Each structure stands twice: as C-alpha cells, then as structure tokens.
Amino acid sequence: MKETLRNVFEKRSGEYTELYLTHISIDCVVLGFHEGLLKILVLKLKEGSKWSLPGGYVGKEEDIDDAAIRILRERTGADHIFLKQFRTFGKNHRNEDIFEENSGLWMAQRFLSVGYYALIDFHKVNLSLDLAEITVIAEWKDVKNLPEMMMDHREIIDQALIYMRRGLNYYPIGLNLLPERFTMPELQQLYESILNKKLNRGNFYRKMMRYDILTKLDECRKIGAHKSPHLYRFNIDNYQKAMEEGFKESW
Amino acid sequence: MKETLRNVFEKRSGEYTELYLTHISIDCVVLGFHEGLLKILVLKLKEGSKWSLPGGYVGKEEDIDDAAIRILRERTGADHIFLKQFRTFGKNHRNEDIFEENSGLWMAQRFLSVGYYALIDFHKVNLSLDLAEITVIAEWKDVKNLPEMMMDHREIIDQALIYMRRGLNYYPIGLNLLPERFTMPELQQLYESILNKKLNRGNFYRKMMRYDILTKLDECRKIGAHKSPHLYRFNIDNYQKAMEEGFKESW
Description:
Oligomer: homodimer
Number of helices of chain A: 6
Largest interface: A-B, 35 and 35 residues
Order of helices and strands of chain A: HEEEEHEEEHEHHEEH
Distance between the termini of chain A: 60 Å
Radius of gyration of chain A: 20 Å
Number of strands of chain A: 10
Strand content of chain A: 25-35%
Helix content of chain A: 25-40%
Shape of chain A: elongated
C-alpha cells in the first residue's frame, strides 16, 4: 500500500533538515510545447487536494540555479532545457499546511520560493518519474484552463507567463522545441502559442530576420501544389550569443 | 570610540537569530537621479574594506517586499519610492567573510540575496541615517565609474541596470524624480541617463505620447528668446494604471 503523504513527510523531515537550506524552496513553471499546444505541468500531492507546481529545495552547498536544474531533472527527466529564474515569492503566510493543522514538519515551515520557468517539448518529459513517492498525479493542463492551484501557485504561473512573454523581446526561443529544420509559419505558431495571440506574418518575418539567428535553407517543404514554404534552421552560434547577451533592447 | 564592526556583529548575532529568517538577505541597488546625473548608493562597512550595497534581512513574519521597503527606509530615510524586485542571487560561496576567518557569526552564514532596485531623487536621501552603527561611509558613485565592490555586489548592480533598462519598456518612470511640471527634453534626459545613450527626439516624443501618461499644459517654459518648450505633467491615474498593468508589450 502506498504510504500516506503525511507518513512520507514525517519520514523525510530529519533528512531534509540535514540536506537543505531552511526557508528556501524552488517552484518550476514547466511549459510544454508540442505541435502548437502550450501546456503547464501540474501535480497532485494527494487525492482530493488542489494542484501544485513541481518544486523542491536547495542543498546546503548547492548553487540555486543548479538546484533548479536538479529538481527539474529529478521530477521530469528533462535535461539541457531552457530554465530561467523570474521572481521570488515571499509573502508571509503563503504556505498552506496541507494537513490542515500545524504539523511541525520541516516541510511546513515558512518558505520563500524562487520561481523558475522552463519551456520544453512535452513529449520528452517522463511524467512517471515523479510518481515514486510524493506525487499521486502529474498532468499537462491547458494554460487557458488551469485547475485550482494550492498556495500562491496560480500567481506564480501568472507571473511566469508575463516574464516569459517579455523574455521573447530579449531572448531567442525555439531550439529543442522545433525540429532541426522548420518553416517560418511553424516558428510563428510557437510565438503565437506563448503570446496567446495572432501575429502579423510580415512583421514577424522581418523581426525574426533582424535578430540574425536564422539560416534560410535552399529547400522548401512540399505541403501542396501552391504552398511550399522555405525551410530554416537556427544559426547555433548566433542563437547562443543572443541567449547570453540578449537582443538589442527596444529603447 | 566607535565600536569595531566585529564587536557590533558579535553583539547583534543573538538578536538577529531571534528576529530574522536564516539564509535570506536583501540587497538594494539604489539609483539616484538629480539634474541629469545617475548615481548608485554604496557603503563601506569598515575602513579599508571594499564597497557594499545597502541591505538587510527578512523578519520572521514579514513579507519580503515589506522587508525591502523597511530596509531602504531605515538605511536612507527614503519612503514611497519605486522599488522593484529583479533577481535572487544564490551561488554557493557568494558570501565573503569580511573578517577573513570563519567567524561563526549569524551574519557569516550562507545567504541567498533577493535583489531590489530603487530609483529616487538623491537629494531626498539622508546619508547620515545609516552611519549610526555599522556603516562608516555612505556615498553616491557614478554608475559609469564604480569602485571595487565586495562579494557579488558588482554583478547585482549590473543585473539591476539590465532589468531597470528593460523595465522602461513596460513601466512609466519619472514621478517623484522630475518636478511636477516638466518639459519633454527634461523627461528625455531622465531616460537617457538611465539608458546611458542618446535618444532620437522625435521618436521619444511619439513613444511617450502613445503611452498616454502625459498631460500637455497650456504653458511653456521661458528659457530664451527662441526656446520655450511646452510643459507637461503626469496624468496620475493613467500613470498608476500603467504601473500596475504595464504598457502594451512589444510582441
């Protein structure tokens, strides 16, 4: 029989005290993209509870960005992905004792949570990894139709979407999300999914070309007698450079 | 005779353990603007040491944003100012024991520091406030010519400038920094100081007017026979609305 969540927490409380920094947690807003759909990975810690973001704690000697990468890998199997810190959530009483009583457990202390967002091809995620001990359900939910989230996790998601959309003005996106060769309409569809709005085709094309991260190939995709859009691939050097330095800013 | 920093830290160690959350600090990048100059407030904790950012800790029952406001007020006397969280710095070993030995003091533990930036009229800041106990010097330094900073404080400053410049694409700025009535060239000078570059006058004008936060007055400033630029003031309602909701985004 699967242990109850309370049993697991009680068993782990001493171990977590040894391993992790007090008062600091990490929450990951994992956005999955595949074939034009944008979804968020959410979990249930126990039957009947609200939904939660995947998260974890920071090792006593661990860099915070390394902790975020480890947590995401442990919980989804995903690696080498775009992961970006966006905000730290630190309201007093943001915690919610999921046992509806003051449990005194390590996990029930006050946490300031550092939010990270990730964007990955959701077919590369192994949802069963996280089910070993704590989580009972892991699911992809439509960004436009989210279930009731625990604590301030809905605010964390809303903020992640704001930061990620703004990030599109500064950083390239698409590597590891699109096939190696893709058409401009496919790239535009990725942006439209994230921004949740239609973009003008001509403006999108000009803007992307100005970023100088695409190489136009001498091939077209044959998708019909009158439609054969050009194929592109990312110029990896320029893409990486833009990831580090950012695009030229608006002002 | 002024107590040594070590004495102060030893005296406060027990009190801080009672008052504050462990492992979490706040660092403030306070940018001062006055008459076209942009400067950063930096401190020295003791003679001969590197420079430091003003910072502090989070009370056990205190919201993190409230802590940042309190810290800034305690250390500068400044209130009702634009203060924005931008990033949390959490590398292991980012701390530097200013006593060059493992002191075992509360202040020498590992801290993850939540960075906030503030932009204020630097004539409204009382630099003497912070000199009571810990700080020996508090000075405004030119952003373009910063002294050697302790720990990762230089990185925190550099990141604050990046985030603040980007913020200009989303949020209005200028209230409490400019006189109640100001000219378009004065507003442009504020933006140019922050961005550290010249802007095109016509583009600047059109962009600002599109934001719909300015009211053009029926008065001009008389500064010469042939120069009498129009005066503007902020439309406070629209300004506040833009502060909350942000300007329309680029994409």
